[in-house]
Amino acid sequence: MGHPAFDLSGKVALVTGGNSGIGLGIAEALATAGADLAIWGTNEAKNEAARTRLEERGRRVLALRCDVGDPAQVAAAFAETVRALGRVDACFANAGISGGRQKPFLEHEVADWERVLRVNLTGAFSTLQTAARHMVERGGGGSLVGTASIAAIEGAARNQHYAASKGGVVSMIRALAVELARHGIRANAILPGWIETEMTARSVADERFRNAVLPRIPMRRWGRGEDFGGIAVYLMSDASAYHTGDTLVVDGGYSLF
Q: Catalytic residue positions?
């Protein structure tokens, strides 16, 4: 029998970007631990495929189309989530986009900056704010988790807009941890390293990139979505009841080497 603190039976989690990659890895682990789930994504076909996959674990699963960069869509999707599942005990603001084709900082345009921050930072803000309001009004605490990146703590050349968006998530999470602790709400950030997902497929398939990056990862492999399941269950569970304001790096040791 597992440790009872990790049992998520009777709890509900929201995972944005939960239809693939890190988000799906998080959602699968939460479902296995007993949680019911709402997953949000912009691709309806992927949403349905993920919903079917998650329902095989015997949990209630709601899949909604939502562009988190639009606060109105966030509000509507959250209201539908609560209507269908009754509550939200943990919110994983995981949805994000890449910086696109890398180019020198001197060639970045304001449109590049705004496109990335709209989803990665404003989207996380809207999602976490809506969830926090629900948790405060409902009472009983909860867990807020933001997916950032090691780009927030390392020098991400040619990717300043992406790095800024993820650095903003880390700072916002820390501020939330301080402000919301009085309501029993914890807030933590997860910082992935090089993870093999649709977003990074082009990079990890490039031989030159592989030869430059893989030798710097002590674990000698790319991360996978399922590598984030354990930390997600921990952060949602009572096992992390006194753990807040942290930045949890999951990168196979890349940032150390």
A: 149, 162, 166
Q: DSSP labels for 19-70?
A: TSHHHHHHHHHHHHTT-EEEEEES-HHHHHHHHHHHHTTT--EEEEE--TTS
For residues 26 and 230, give the distance between their C-alpha atoms in angstroms, rounded to a whole number: 8
Amino acid identity for residue 206 in this structure:
D
Strands 142-147 and 36-41: what pairing?
Answer: unpaired
**Rounded to an integer, what distance in angstroms lies between the CA atom of residue 102 and that of residue 241?**
40
Alpha-helical regions (H) of 56-200 = 71-85, 110-117, 123-138, 160-180
Which residues have a Cβ under 8 Å from the Cβ of 245 and sit 6 or more positions away? 173, 174, 177, 178, 187, 188
Structure tokens at 204: 């990890």
**pTM, to two decimals:** 0.96
Q: Which tens digit of pLDDT belongs to each residue from 124-158? A: 999 999 999 999 999 999 999 999 999 999 999 99
